[in-house]
Amino acid sequence: MLGRLSKSLSTAQLQSLNTLLPSWSVHQESLSKTYRFNSNKDAWDFLELAQKLSRAHRFKPVCMYNENHVEVRLEGAENITRAHVSAAGFLDKAAKSVKEETYEH
Q1: Helices 40-57 & 82-104 angle (0-180, nearest 10)
Q2: What domains can be seen in the chain, in order of their start residue?
Q3: Which of 36, 62, 97, 105 could bond 73 through an S-S bridge, CB–CB 3.0 to 4.6 Å?
């Protein structure tokens, strides 16, 4: 199901992605999510981790920063791939890590 998906995602495929990534907005050709952080520093720390993802996997998330909010879009040329789902999971873990680090101090 999560290999290269067909150009037009079926209703079942979209529902499956919504189940795998409940906090993400699933669209035919992209995944999107807005992360909210307690501070600008936390948002910047998250952006740094997103940049590492980009470098390591040659996968470029579109990140829009506004104060302590970061909107992330993972776009595909034609459709969502396994790499998009993996990147979404990594970004969720990165955001959680940044937030937990803040609470420990």
Answers
A1: 150
A2: 28-104 (3.30.1360.20)
A3: 62
DSSP 23: T
Residue 60 in contact with residue 40, Cβ under 8 Å? no
How many residues does this entry show for the chain?
Answer: 105
Task: Report the distance separating Cα 5 and Cα 18, nearest Å.
Answer: 15
User: What's the rounded Cα separation, in Å, for the pair 45 and 29?
Assistant: 27
- List the pLDDT tens digit at each of the 105 positions of the chain: 455 544 566 778 778 888 889 999 988 788 999 999 999 999 999 999 999 888 887 778 889 998 889 999 988 766 787 888 888 999 999 999 998 765 543
pTM for the model stands at 0.81
Q: How far apart are CA 52 and CA 93, in angstroms?
A: 13
